[in-house]
């Protein structure tokens, strides 16, 4: 199309102003125009770089939208620096280093523009410009769709980015636009992105979809507020926050996301109100790092398409869920790592295939007035330092209501567990917990099932209609400490064939055999008839010989160098004892040890066996293990730390005091930290009672080296350091095979090879759990096996015992 003429219509009343005229070029017309003039451009293609510097109206002919093409060879086709009106033009940009439309100043209106470009950006707003952009379309497969930079702002209404080679809308360097009823799709980067301190993005009624990246990305101290927006069909996370970002989502919908629906970390803060998150492949909410926080109110997270927890909170992050619903997911809420915390109020967790609430690695969860329904496990407090409170909660129709293991110590108060298919409450493997005013009704197994002599407190609890009995307690075997077993007070039961709970807070011990662990002692498996809750423990069996204990040590998978070190120590102590008996001088052997290595490498197990060996040799009176960490030793005020440390030392009298993550007592930035008081007290006690307690400090290798280097008084007390190496794939396979044998499962042909490949490929980062990972893998395989076999009408013995490669969990 040839270039047409430009008709300039004077709209003023002064006789000194120009009359209507025609110009050969747009540039000439703009030069001649004055504020208020209307420039109506004839159809055609204009190879000009236009600069609008007056408050004029520049538009195509009425009814001829898109018939005027502004298409220079290079540079910026259209630059606006005034409160002009630009309407119904087709703008084409070909310069990869420049925008197609650049708004640099003023408050112009851009109406009905179609921008088709291969430019750095389709529409770019800078500096003090505050345009109003309505019903404009941007198609820029080479760069950013709309860019607002350097303090720019403005309002974009009913605009559409139909393609972008980078972000659909990018806000940077203190810019703050508002988007209303816009659509952003087919972007090669994020749909909406805001970055940089002072940058702020507001979007209302917008839709972001079909983007090859995150739907919304807020980073670097930027803020954003989205209301009534849809984010869906991305190839990456739905919403990403990083580095002090702040985002508010109100009445939004995030769905059809293959990765995390929302992922935030590095001190970012997210507030969600009346927002739904569904059909996500990984986590619905993924929250990481100290200072990172999520506050969700009246939100719904559901319909996961992957095998990951709906809400994941770790590395010291915080999440609050108030009046929310989480349902139809593999796991509802996982909170892990010391310093992480989740508060859930008046919320529903339901239709959960595995665990509704999982608390591990020292994390805390607080649930108030919540309802947990139709889950394999209602709440599982997994390990030492993990805890929190369940208060006034209802757990209905779960396989097991509450599980407490491995030193976890939650408080469960005024909760009701109704109709569990296995057990209402299950405590094992050193779990603790306080159950106050709780009730278990209609259990197909036991009401409260406490094994391994766990020091659990039951006070004013009640069981009703529990098929196998209200209370079942099993001790930890003949080597258990005298103060082991649950403490039971004012508990009652309506089981006519079962025992009543004891009226006084005496240790409640059941003399069954020692447990084989969580899977080996599932509520409902029992070899003897239920007896009185308080049973006579009977005479203590004699302690095992050192040879027998060393045999158990040798049976552990891997740890060859560790076994050699322990045998060398044992030989030194044994020979020293024999020399003394022969009237000879015996070499002094310092028995305190440093264990270094990654989690899950068997440090606690070896410490327990070491104590038993020392007891068999007569070096220690009992040889029992007392495991503590910083939280058990360090108090909140001056003086309380020394008391706590002395109490822990006294509990370990005659045995081994095992201090896990001992380096936490001496943080790099200690300041007024009370950890030093614990160390000083410990050093003195080790000197004063050198023959009564053996101390083992444990932790990551690098951190323990630092701990010993900054505390020479501690370092001098230890004889040697034993390093626990990571397990290799073949050793992890052997652990799984041992677990399978122990729990009467078998590996089908090809499963061992698949496990080896799985353990070879699994990431070996700081979160890798070694033996714990192997056991968790086995437990995951058992869960998947159960889901598969439950669908069979008449399963065979092979169906019930064989684990296949398909039962392996997916690698994250």
TrEMBL record:
This is Sporulation protein. It holds the Pfam family Beta_helix. PANTHER family: AAA-TYPE ATPASE FAMILY PROTEIN / ANKYRIN REPEAT FAMILY PROTEIN, AAA-TYPE ATPASE FAMILY PROTEIN _ ANKYRIN REPEAT FAMILY PROTEIN. It comes from the Bacteria. Residues 474-486 have a biased composition (Low complexity). The keyword ATP-binding applies. Keywords: ATP-binding, Nucleotide-binding, Repeat. InterPro entries: AAA+_ATPase (IPR003593), AAA_lid_6 (IPR041627), ATPase_AAA_core (IPR003959), Beta_helix (IPR039448), Carb-bd_sugar_hydrolysis-dom (IPR006633), CbxX/CfxQ (IPR000641), CbxX/CfxQ_RuBisCO_ESX (IPR050773), P-loop_NTPase (IPR027417). Residues 589-728 form the AAA+ ATPase domain. Residues 472-542 are annotated as: Disordered. Residues 41-172, 313-474 form the Carbohydrate-binding/sugar hydrolysis domain. Belongs to the CbxX/CfxQ family.
């Amino acid at each position: 199309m040839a270039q047409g003429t430009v008709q300039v219509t004077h709209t003023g009343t002064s006789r000194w102003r120009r009359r209507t005229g025609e110009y050969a070029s747009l540039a000439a017309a703009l030069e001649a125009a004055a504020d208020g003039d209307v420039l109506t451009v004839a159809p055609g293609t204009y190879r000009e770089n236009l600069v609008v510097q007056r408050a004029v109206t520049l538009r195509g002919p009425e009814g001829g939208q898109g018939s005027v093409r502004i298409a220079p060879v290079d540079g910026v086709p259209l630059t606006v620096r005034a409160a002009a009106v630009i309407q119904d033009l087709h703008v084409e940009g070909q310069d990869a280093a420049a925008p197609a439309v650049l708004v640099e100043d003023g408050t112009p209106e851009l109406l009905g523009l179609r921008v088709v470009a291969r430019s750095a950006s389709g529409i770019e707003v800078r500096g003090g410009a505050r345009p109003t952009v309505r019903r404009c379309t941007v198609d820029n497969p080479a760069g950013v769709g709309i860019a607002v930079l350097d303090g720019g702002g403005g309002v974009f209404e009913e605009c559409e980015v139909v393609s972008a080679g980078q972000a659909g809308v990018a806000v940077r360097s203190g810019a703050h636009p508002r988007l209303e009823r816009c659509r952003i799709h087919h972007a090669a980067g994020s749909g909406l992105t805001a970055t940089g301190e002072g940058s702020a993005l507001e979007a209302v009624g917008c839709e972001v979809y079909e983007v090859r990246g995150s739907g919304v990305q807020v980073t670097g101290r930027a803020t954003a507020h989205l209301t009534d927006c849809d984010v869906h069909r991305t190839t990456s996370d739905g919403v990403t926050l990083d580095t002090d970002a702040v985002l508010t989502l109100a009445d939004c919908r995030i769905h059809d996301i293959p990765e995390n629906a929302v992922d935030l970390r590095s001190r970012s803060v997210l507030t969600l109100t009346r927002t739904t998150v569904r059909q996500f492949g990984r986590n619905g909410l993924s929250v990481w790092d100290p200072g990172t926080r999520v506050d969700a109110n009246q939100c719904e997270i559901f319909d996961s398409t992957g095998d990951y927890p709906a809400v994941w909170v770790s590395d010291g992050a915080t999440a609050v869920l108030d009046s929310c619903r989480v349902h139809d997911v593999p796991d509802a809420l996982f909170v892990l790592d010391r310093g992480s915390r989740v508060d859930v109020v008046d919320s529903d967790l339901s239709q959960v295939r595995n665990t509704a609430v999982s608390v591990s690695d020292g994390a805390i969860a607080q649930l108030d007035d919540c309802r947990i329904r139709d889950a394999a496990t209602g709440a599982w407090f997994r390990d030492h330092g993990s805890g929190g409170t369940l208060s006034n909660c209802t757990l209905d129709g779960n396989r097991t209501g509450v599980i407490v293991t491995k030193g976890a110590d939650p408080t469960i108060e005024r909760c009701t567990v109704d109709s569990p298919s296995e057990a209402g409450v299950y405590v094992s493997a050193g779990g603790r917990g306080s159950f106050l005013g709780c009730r278990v009704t209609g259990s197909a197994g036991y009401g409260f099932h406490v094994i391994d002599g766990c020091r659990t407190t039951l006070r004013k609890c009640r069981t009703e209609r529990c098929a196998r009995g209200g209370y079942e307690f099993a001790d930890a075997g003949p080597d258990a400490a005298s103060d082991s077993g649950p403490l039971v007070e004012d508990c009652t039961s309506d089981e006519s064939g079962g025992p009543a709970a004891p009226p006084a807070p005496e240790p409640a011990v059941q003399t069954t055999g020692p447990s084989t662990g969580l899977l080996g002692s599932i509520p409902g498996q029992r070899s003897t008839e239920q007896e009185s809750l308080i049973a006579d423990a009977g005479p203590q069996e004699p302690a095992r010989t050192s040879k027998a204990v060393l045999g158990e040590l040798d049976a552990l998978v891997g740890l060859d160098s560790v076994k050699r070190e322990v045998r060398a120590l044992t030989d030194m102590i044994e020979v020293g004892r024999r020399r003394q008996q022969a009237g000879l001088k015996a070499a002094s052997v310092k028995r305190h040890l440093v264990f270094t290595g990654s989690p899950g490498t068997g440090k606690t197990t070896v410490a327990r066996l070491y104590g038993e060996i020392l007891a068999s040799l007569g070096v220690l009176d009992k040889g029992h293990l007392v495991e503590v960490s910083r939280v058990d030793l360090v108090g909140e005020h001056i003086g309380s730390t020394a008391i706590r440390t002395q109490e822990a030392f006294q509990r370990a009298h005659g045995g081994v005091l095992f201090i896990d993550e001992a380096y936490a007592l001496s943080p790099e930035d200690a300041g007024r930290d009370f950890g030093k008081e614990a160390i000083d007290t410990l050093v003195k006690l080790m000197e004063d009672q050198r023959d009564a307690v053996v101390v083992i400090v444990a932790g990551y290798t690098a951190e323990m080296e630092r701990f010993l280097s900054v505390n020479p008084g501690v370092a001098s007390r230890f004889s040697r350091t034993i390093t626990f190496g990571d397990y290799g794939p073949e050793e992890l396979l052997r652990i799984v095979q041992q677990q399978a044998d122990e729990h009467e499962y078998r590996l089908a042909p090809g499963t061992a090879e698949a496990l080896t490949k799985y353990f070879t490929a699994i990431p070996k980062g700081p979160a890798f759990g070694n033996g714990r990972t192997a056991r968790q893998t086995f437990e995951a395989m058992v869960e998947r096996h159960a889901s598969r076999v439950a669908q069979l009408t008449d399963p065979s013995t092979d169906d019930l015992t064989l684990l296949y490669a398909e039962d392996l969990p997916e690698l994250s």
